[in-house]
Amino acid sequence: MRPKSSKTGFTLVELLVVIGIIALLVSILLPSLSKAREMATRTKCLSNVRQLCMAHQMYLNENKQWVAFSNWDGGNAAYQNALVGWLYECPIPNPVPADRVETGSYWPYLKNRDIYRCPSHVKEVSFGQAKTDALTSYIMNGGVNGYGQTDPAGSNKIKFYRITAFKPDDVLLWEADERVTKDASGQNSSAWNDGASNPWETFNIKDPKAGGLTIRHGKVAVIGCMDGHSEWIAHKEFYDLSFQRKRNRLWIKPDSATGQ
User: What is the pLDDT of residues 102-123, one digit of tens each?
Assistant: First the structure.
């Protein structure tokens, strides 16, 4: 006689225990996965700015150490001596097509649109005449053209400087706030209507703690410097530098005691 086989299954209690263990493991792993994903995004963003700074260095080497035009023009061909900027060729259409970045002076050294954007920058918000945050997550410091300084003789020519006019750790690029902003005087800002800005132009009216920088990475953001390196800067440090009335690494206009 063959013994009669008995088939047994999981009891309800056992199933609940297994589900509880799985839920516990998921709750433990999810923060780690989220943190790992953010670290990967930060690394890529830092690398992007580093590559943009390398393009800056290569441009200098091929142009007798003159710093590239910052696109300080509101998206228009506003200056007689400046047509092609680091980000695009003027004038810029509105809305701006994604391939417009391929007309900029840095493009020949990069040839990759992804380098111009933080991986977590997925939404564009129009602030001014154009919508340049559709092209990039990073803004050039308008101080490289004297924040719009023109020839005192009256011609519509913007000021250019060689790299020797700046300090190695001066800020060339920063990851500006992509949301609705106002400048230091309380006026509506247009930080993304071209490829450049000044430190006062990127403060978010709904989040003063953002300090003029994006909040994609929390309380820090990426900056790129004149000597070609990229680094993280805290919102508070950026904010404090912005409101100093003296030459510092953020206010970099040559021929000005305050850098402004």
Answer: 999 999 999 999 999 999 887 6
